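Researcher:
Attend to token order:
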Amino acid sequence: MPDSFKSLGDVFRKEPAFKYLREVVKSSDVVNDFYKIFPDFEKIALPLKVDKKVLKLRVENPTWRSEMKFRESEIVERINKFYNEERIKQIRFSS
């Protein structure tokens, strides 16, 4: 096999053309893994999406929304620690 061939994984991880796609995949990982990181939040919050490192969460109960807003920095830190990189900078809450 010629030396110029690259694995699909290498191409996906390193090629500049796939930068946007890598960001989309990382964002969807946060939504998909949210309950792995926070199993206790399963009945409290619904992760909607990540856009520009802002996680959008739906929290119906105003008391829980207030509590989660109070703990926002802790939640962001825990998510970023789970991935060993900064994936989230802020959380926006909706009802």
